[in-house]
């Protein structure tokens, strides 16, 4: 199979879909690899790092899309990229289709077989290709929240860890999964007073057992959430429903109950955001204010630490990429139900129920796609 990796073109996106290590593995398995010139530079991988393991460097993304049997990326294809996709081609990347009708329509019109990192599962019910970027985003959330909290950025002017005699900032993390746990641990490590809200009693028991000396837990009822956000300096939205649009956790009306200059960090913005007032921003212009509350809603937070993120993502995606290349997508998905869960579109059909339901569009069972 010919595997292609273009340069990411989303604003301030420095990650690359294939590391030299992944390219080496693909070549060792008998596949050909083409990488767009300079694709890895932002993550610290020059072209020689790829050619030295047997990959070919090409000048343009157009050549990648025209030649490759499988296109491997990081972020969802932008509009200009989607127009170059075609039926019979595999697209392997993050997609986040539930809140993105234009992208979904373009993928359906292209006929491409699109496999989304964020809906591939494992035997424990976890999301192994989303997890490394969730870890990165979770650890970044208190850092960017603390920066936004500075007075020069519109925040309250509160130091996250406080100083002797002055209380630290209060950080509320809504969601105790991968993002939330890492956000809470980093915020607590920075000296903040941290509370994690979650609706799963077993998860809260685990968090209490493992991290009771670092942060507190509360049940994520509407009442508790409403109470705690009035005390918060930073609220981190870290709730995920796999493949579906994120739920709204804080309404615009509730902003008036919060401290002026407090901060909302929406890590779920890729899935539409979990605050009513969220809208996607970029690293160029990451924050905005609504009703006196600062919002940080960058849709590709891990792109800020591109090298760490690229290597972490590459380690996770490599085995699945090799399986797709070695077997073809139909056999690879037939052999691995967890990879099958990543199938979002094929031959003009939505194949992931949560996407179809979120967009009000027809969808088919992914097993049916194997017969098309």
Give keywords.
372 residues; Rossmann fold; seven-stranded mixed sheet; 15 helices; 36% helix; globular
Question: What does this molecule look like?
Answer:
The protein is of the alpha/beta class and 372 residues long. Helices cover 36% and strands 16% of the residues. It has two domains: 2-119 and 306-369, Rossmann fold, CATH 3.40.50; 131-299, NAD(P)-binding Rossmann-like Domain (Rossmann fold), CATH 3.40.50.720. Strand 7 (170-174), helix 7 and strand 8 form a beta-alpha-beta unit. 51% of the residues are buried. The mean pLDDT is 96.
What is this structure's SSE topology?
Blueprint: E1 2-5, H1 20-28, E2 32-36, H2 47-51, E3 56-58, H3 61-67, E4 70-72, H4 79-82, E5 90-93, H5 101-110, E6 113-116, H6 131-149, E7 170-174, H7 178-189, E8 193-198, H8 201-211, E9 216-219, H9 222-229, E10 234-237, H10 252-255, E11 263-266, E12 287-290, E13 293-296, H11 306-327, H12 329-335, H13 337-340, E14 343-346, E15 349-350, H14 353-359, H15 366-369
Parallel strand pairs: 1-2, 1-4, 2-3, 4-5, 5-6, 7-8, 7-10, 8-9, 10-11, 11-13
Antiparallel strand pairs: 6-14, 12-13, 14-15
Helix pairs in contact: 1-11, 6-7, 11-12
Q: How many domain modules?
A: 2
* CATH architecture verdict of the largest domain: 3-Layer(aba) Sandwich
Arithmetic mean pLDDT: 96
The low-confidence parts are none
In short:
By secondary structure, the chain is of the alpha/beta class. It contains 15 helices and 15 strands.
């Amino acid at each position: 199979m010919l595997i292609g990796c273009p340069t990411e073109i989303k604003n301030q996106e420095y990650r690359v879909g294939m590391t030299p290590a992944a390219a080496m593995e693909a070549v060792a398995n008998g596949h050909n690899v083409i990488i767009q010139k300079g694709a890895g530079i932002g993550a610290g991988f020059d072209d020689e790092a790829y050619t030295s393991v047997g990959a070919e460097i090409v000048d343009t993304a157009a050549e990648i899309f025209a030649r490759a049997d499988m296109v491997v990326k990081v972020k969802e294809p932008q509009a200009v990229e989607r127009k170059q996709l075609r039926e019979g081609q595999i697209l392997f990347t993050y997609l986040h289709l539930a809140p993105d009708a234009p992208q979904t329509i373009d993928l359906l019109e292209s006929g491409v077989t699109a496999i989304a990192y964020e809906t591939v599962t494992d035997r424990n019910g976890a999301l192994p290709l989303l997890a490394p970027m969730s870890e990165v985003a979770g650890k970044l959330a208190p850092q960017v929240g603390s920066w936004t909290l500075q007075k020069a950025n519109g925040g309250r002017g509160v130091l996250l860890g406080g100083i002797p005699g002055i209380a630290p900032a209060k950080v509320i993390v809504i969601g105790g999964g991968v993002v939330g746990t890492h956000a809470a641990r980093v915020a607590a490590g920075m000296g903040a007073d941290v509370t994690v809200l979650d609706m799963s009693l077993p998860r809260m028991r685990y968090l209490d057992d493992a991290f009771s000396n670092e942060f507190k837990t509360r049940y994520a009822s509407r009442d508790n959430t409403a109470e705690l956000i009035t005390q918060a300096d930073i609220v981190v939205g870290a709730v995920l429903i796999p493949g579906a649009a994120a739920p709204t956790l804080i309404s615009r009306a509730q902003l008036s109950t919060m401290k002026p200059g407090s901060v909302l960090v929406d890590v779920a913005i890729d899935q539409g955001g979990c605050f009513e007032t969220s809208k996607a921003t970029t690293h160029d212009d990451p924050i905005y204010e609504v009703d006196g509350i600062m919002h940080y809603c960058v849709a590709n937070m891990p792109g800020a630490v591109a090298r760490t993120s690229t290597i972490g993502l590459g380690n996770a995606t490599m085995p699945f990429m090799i399986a797709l290349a070695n077997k073809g997508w139909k056999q690879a998905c037939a052999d691995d139900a967890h990879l099958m869960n990543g199938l979002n579109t094929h031959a003009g059909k939505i194949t992931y129920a949560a996407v179809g339901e979120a967009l009000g569009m027809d969808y088919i069972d992914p097993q049916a796609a194997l017969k098309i």
